[in-house]
Each structure stands twice: as structure tokens, then as C-alpha cells.
Write a structure and sequence with these properties.
This protein is α/β, with parallel strands linked by helices. It contains 21 helices and 7 strands. It folds into 3 domains: 84 residues, Four Helix Bundle (Hemerythrin (Met), subunit A); 185 residues, P-loop containing nucleotide triphosphate hydrolases (Rossmann fold, 3-Layer(aba) Sandwich), CATH 3.40.50; 130 residues, 434 Repressor (Amino-terminal Domain) (Orthogonal Bundle). Strands 2-3-1-4-5-6-7 form a 7-stranded mixed sheet, with helices on both faces. The two termini are 34 Å apart. It binds guanosine-5'-diphosphate (GDP). Belongs to the GTP-binding SRP family. SRP54 subfamily. It is an enzyme of class 3 (hydrolase). Its EC number is 3.6.5.4.
Amino acid sequence: MFDNLTEKLTSVLKDLRGHGKLTESNINSALKEVRMALLEADVHYKVAKTFVAEIKERALGHEVMESLTPGQQVVKIVNEALTDLMGESHEDLVLSGENPVSVMLTGLQGSGKTTTAGKLALYLRKRGRKPFLVPADVYRPAAIDQLKKLASQLDVPVFDSEVGMDPVDICRSARAAAQQRGCDTLILDTAGRLHVDEELMAELVRIKAEVAPSDILLVADAMTGQDAVNIAQSFDGALDLGGVVLTKMDGDARGGAALSIKAVTGKPIKFIGTGEKSSALEPFHPDRMSSRILGMGDTLTLIEKATEMVDVKKAQDLEKKLRKNQFTLEDFRDQLVSIRKMGSLGDMLKMLPGVSGNKHLSNLDVDDREIARIEAIINSMTAQERQKHAIINGSRRKRIARGSGTSVQDVNKLLKNYTQMMKMMKKFNKGGMRSLKGMLPF
Ligand code: GDP
């Protein structure tokens, strides 16, 4: 996400930090580079211009803090200005109104609307709501099937729309059906076209008039840059959007859409899509995004992701096992599976401070396949082998390698790592904190 922009901005700001005193001229030349970096990232030119002017005013104005060096002050100012540009704080879905409420998803074909419908259902269910999915794209037959399939995978109730029904009728009937099933939030997956066209807008306006949704979101593809901003303007003009979901932020989107949408349309980005899986949806926090763009990481999102995945009871059991040296290969595998659920290792690393702005670190190739390999090896063991790794002799190793499509060396390596870890834990459990000292490499 935004790797280039991050790299450029961190390098400009690093240069600036090197100066003891900031003059108007070195601020000017730094800002010129900031503006170039923004334009290269496909930020709307007017937005880039205003942004730079704003920073200059703040940097040369009265906003100086005694405790910071001039260079640090500029970083602080850029960080705050980026945050303001994207909308200050996170804006959540609006779900107020007569029960059940509706959230209407709109957007062009291929933007990720149907996928986002599933992601939102999951997001809402985690927050204690009862979502009801409504396929209202009757023109593309596959769209209805796609959402029904997704609903069944996620175990979320779905309206039984059929091709040929009127989308407004679907939305009306879906409301009664949702009520009957005890659901409180309808997610309407409306039709998309390849381009903005009047017929589509007229249909969306009719749906809006019929169901009075509590929130209307545009789903837009971040990879399309300024097009996404123009599309947002058109949809907002016709529908008065509540906000935007920016999808495919896991790809190499340059950042233009994320940085311009709020400034151009006045409507906030509420969520970002970060992958094809149904769990790959993040609430959009302008301050955290700004911090990520400046290479300062986003530890808060990382912690939230981890907390969502952690089962407190399981964590306590695990802690007990570690203390008693009973941590088996099976536990090891469960840990890997839960790490994998959080997303790709490379993306998670980038949320740590200093990683994404650093050329060497951000190019680190974190191989998610390595985890998959370890998982496969442990899966090919028998239950007994997982409990008592000492019984895994040469012939067993061969069998495990064959079963998991890996080599005996791979199996050896895993067992070696595991036994080393167990040894370390033993040492730690015996000596407490003091023993840690001997284990650290410095
Ligand atoms: P729709 O036509 O707007 O309903 O779009 P779909 O939901 O069918 O999505 C189009 C394609 O984009 C599918 O292949 C999705 O898997 C993919 N997609 C959707 N959201 C994301 C995302 O956040 N990241 C990535 N990498 N792919 C996505």
C-alpha cells in the first residue's frame, strides 16, 4: 500500500530533519518534492496544491513547539495535514432508524461490491448485529449466485432474489423477509455497470426512495486512482452518499484515491478492502493511515487485528502449557493458523513503525508459503507424533515429508526449530526473567 509515496515522503522528511534550523528556502524545496510525490501518487492536482500551501503556512506560522526540533515539527505538521485531508477521525456506518435498517452498496461493475457485501455482513455480525444480504443486481445473473454462495459460506441469511425481478421490488420484499428472520440490518448489493450511466443512477435513486437506507456507500476500486474520485463525485451528486469503501488497497494502488476522495467530494472513506477474503476489511482511520503513509507504522490496527483473533480462554491454556513445557507440535500449528488468519505476514510487517519507509525492510520477502509448508508438515504427522515429537525417527520423517509434499530436510528443520524453542522455554521457565539475559544475542 502506497510504498512509493511512503518512500519519497520519508526521504524528503529525513533530509529536512538533518538541518538544524529550517529556513523558508529549505522548506520550499522540501515542499516542492512533497508536491511531486503526491502528484506521482495520482493525488488530484488541486488537492496537492492546497495541501502543500497548508503545510507551508503551518510550518512558517506560529505552530511551533519548543520540545521538537524544526525537522520533527515538519513531520508532525505533515502528519496532521495528511490526517485532516482524509477526514480527521474514523466515521462508522450509520445504522440508526426504524428496525431493520438498510445499508445500500453502490458502485461500478468489478469494483468489489459483492465481495464487500460479504465483508460487511461479517463485520456487522462480529459487532452483534444480525445482517441480511440482498442481491439486487438482476442484470448479471452470476451476481445473484455469487452473493448467495458467499452468504452460505459465511452462514448469513440471504434474500432469494431471482433474475427478472424488479430491483425495487426485491429491496421492498427483502425488508419483510429480514424482519421475519429476526435480522436487523439489510445489506443491499445493487447493480453495477461498466460506466456511470443515467439508467443505472435512476434505478439507484428509485431504490433509495423506496427503502430510505440509513447509509449509502460507494464501493470504489483504489487501483483506478482519479477515476475513483470522479466516480465518487457522480454517485454523490445523484445519491448523496454517506461514505466510500475503497477496495483493493492491498494491491499497488498509488494512494491518489485515498488522499483525494474526502477533499474532493466531502464524503469520508469509511472502510478499506485489503484482500479477497471476507475478513479483509478495515475501518478507515485517517490518523492511522497518515502514520502508515509516513512510514511510522500502524500498531493500533495491528493490535486490533490480533485482539480480534485471540480467544482469551485459548490464550490462557497456551500460557499454562508453555509454563509446564507441554507445548506440542499441535499447539504450534494452531498458533501458525491463527497468525495466518490475520493476513499476509508482509502486510502485517508494514504496520510496524519504520518498516514501510525503509527500502531494505519493506522489500523483505516474507514468505507466507513457509507457514503453509510448516502447517502441511504438522498435518501429515499422526496425533501421537504431534504429542511426542521424540518418536519421530528417520522412517517417520520420510513418510511425513512424502505426505506433505516437502523434503526430509524441511521436516528436520521444523523439528530442530521446535526443539530449540522448547529448550529456550525450559530455560526461561526455570530461571524466570534472569535467564532471559543469557538467551539474548546482545
Ligand atoms: P462487483 O462486480 O462490484 O460485485 O465486484 P466483485 O465483488 O465481484 O469483485 C471483483 C473482483 O475484485 C473479485 O475478483 C474480487 O475477489 C476482487 N476484490 C474485491 N475486493 C478486493 C480487495 O479489497 N482486494 C483484492 N485484492 N481484491 C478484491
